[in-house]
Amino acid sequence: MNLHGEQVLLRVYLQTADRAPHTPTYHRVVKAARDRGLAGATVLRGIMGLGSHGLIQHAAWSLTEHLPVIVEIVDSPERIAEFLTDDLDHHLVAAMATLERASVAMYRPRAHDQPTSVHLAAAITPLSTLPRIQPKARMTINETGVLLRVFIGESDRFQGKPLYEAIVQKVRELGLAGATVLRGTEGFGANSVVHKAQLLEMSTDLPIVIEVVDTEEHIKPLLPHLETMIDEGMITMEYVVILMYRHNDPDAPQRPPPPPLSPAP
């Protein structure tokens, strides 16, 4: 299989407690991708999130862990389209998925014959290489989506609380579709200080990535708040196609736009 070049990244946003009917949904998605013969799948676990069911975070007294989880799959536009149409819809009850460009610079299966060279792809119009997906009964499609990634440190704080919690709360106040907080195990930032997760170290400034997915018109009101909340960090964005799976009728009235920004103090 040759994946070198312009491909598609499918990201499915779920919860660890999602089950259809007994096996965790993210397990079923990975198995379906493997059965389909896709190039691979990666599961990323979060530590906090905001979704259609409200705030998602660890509960010490709950027997079932409710935390966000993301399944990432990279393959050709044609194979991703087949997977969405023929497989994924059978496993998702209420979830969100995004499609974005993924220019593969290197793909080496274990039994590759000759190494391929690694190089960056040329510039290309956003979304121009993504497959056209036909909506199904519970699926709505929005082609004006934005994936915002905020890179900060776990020890960063804002008004006395962890910065990532403050950002998720702001996302919630503005009525955005959702947010997912991912914790890294090692990294460095603008000051070039390397931070690692150590077994006996209780407080480590590990890297944190906050992912927010919504339409451009809903993302824009968040940006001024991030400017005032983040002292050190980085923000990236990608244009994506949003696939939303819901319990209710896709023809139901859409949510109102987010409230206007309050005047700056």
Characterise this structure.
Mean pLDDT is 83; it is low at 199-203 and 261-265. The longest helix has 12 residues, at 25-36. Helices cover 17% and strands 36% of the residues. It is built from 5 helices and 13 strands. By secondary structure, it is α+β, with helices and mostly antiparallel strands.
Number of helices: 5
Euclidean distance between termini CA atoms: 57 Å
- Could you state the order of secondary-structure elements as H and E? EHEEEHEEEEHEEEEHHE
Report mean pLDDT, rounded to a whole number: 83
Largest sheet entry: 8 strands, antiparallel, barrel
Secondary structure topology:
Layout lengths: L4 E11 L9 H12 L4 E11 L2 E4 L10 E8 L1 H10 L8 E10 L34 E15 L3 E2 L2 E2 H11 L5 E5 L2 E3 L5 E3 L10 E9 H4 L2 H8 L4 E12 L20
Keywords for this structure?
single chain, 265 residues, alpha+beta, 8-stranded antiparallel beta barrel, two-stranded antiparallel ribbon, 5 helices, 13 strands, 17% helix, disordered C terminus
In brief:
This protein has 265 residues and is α+β, with helices and mostly antiparallel strands. The protein has helices spanning 25-36, 77-86, 163-173, 216-219, 222-229; strands at residues 5-15, 41-51, 54-57, 68-75, 95-104, 139-153, 157-158, 161-162, 179-183, 186-188, 194-196, 207-215, 234-245.
